[in-house]
Design brief:
The protein is mostly helical and 93 residues long. It has one helix spanning 2-92.
Amino acid sequence: MNDEAESSRAPQRQNDAASHLADLEDALARFEEAEQREKDKATKQRRLDAKRKRIQMLGELLRDLDMVVYLELITLYHLEYAYHLHTAAASLR
């Protein structure tokens, strides 16, 4: 009797094991998809951070360039003014 009971329950156990295995595979697939989404999100965030840093660096470089040009213009102005002042003083002598 015990052997007959075992044989009648065997297909049910196989079906239970198969459905349990399918559930585990589905859970694993969902986990892998979530993990991939997190990786994609982190990659996108790193790219955005890199772009922000690049834009900030370019802004700083442009300000520095503006400062250099401004200082060159001031230098030229003062050199020109000093030249005219010197020539004016020389012509008065």
